Amino acid sequence: MTRTYTLKRRAEQQAMTRQRIVEAAVDLHGSVGPASTTVSMIAERAGVQRHTFYAHFPGERDLLLACSGLVHERDPLPEAAAWQATKDPRRRLHTGLRALYDWYKRNAGLLACVLRDGEHHQLTREIAELRFSGPMASYRQVLGDGLDAPQRAMLGLALSFFTWRSLTQEGRLKQDAAAAAMTQAIISQK
C-alpha cells in the first residue's frame, strides 16, 4: 500500500510541476512573446531547474501545444453553433462578432504577442493556425450564411483580431459598438 501511495503522490507532484511550467510559459508568452521566451526564463519563473523543464517538455512544440491547450481550457473560443439558431442575419452577425470581440478583449495581450511572433516564428504560426483555423472556419460558415462575396470578404475583415483592436483601442469604440459597426458595414454591402 505504501508504494502505491508514494507513486500516486509523485505523479501528483510531477503534474503540479508541469502545470507551473506551462503557466509560467503562458505568462511570458503574454509579455515578451513566444519567440523571445527562453527555457531559462520559464524555469526561473516556474521555480524549476532547466533539466526539470526538459524532462517535461523535450521540444518547443510540446510546450507550445501545452500552453495553447491551457489557454483554450481556461477561456475557450466562442462556439459558432450557438449562433446558428438565430435566423436574422444582422442579429446573428452582431451576436457572433460581439462574442468573439469579448474573447479578444479578455485575451488581448497574449494574442497580440502570439500573432506578432507568428509573423516570423514558424512554430508559433503553426500552433496558432492549429488552434484558430477550425473556429474561424466555423465563424465564416455560420456568420457568412446568406452573405454574398463582398459581404463575406468584409466578414473576414470583421473577424480579424487586428480589426477589433483598431476599432476598440484606436477608435475607442466599446465592444458592442465595434460589433455593431462591423455588422452595419457588412450588411450595407448589398
Question: What's the gist of this structure?
Answer:
The chain is an all-alpha fold.
Q: Number of helix segments?
A: 10
Helical/strand content category: mainly alpha
| Succession of helices and strands | HHHHHHHHHH
Distance between the termini: 72 Å
Percent helix, as a range, is over 70%
Report mean pLDDT, rounded to a whole number.
Answer: 95
Can you tell me the number of structural domains?
Answer: 2
CA radius of gyration: 20 Å
Counting DSSP E segments of at least 2 residues, the number of strands comes to 0
Report the β-strand fraction as a percent range.
Answer: under 5%
The backbone outline, from C-alpha atoms, is elongated
Q: How is the main sheet built?
A: none
Low-confidence stretches: none
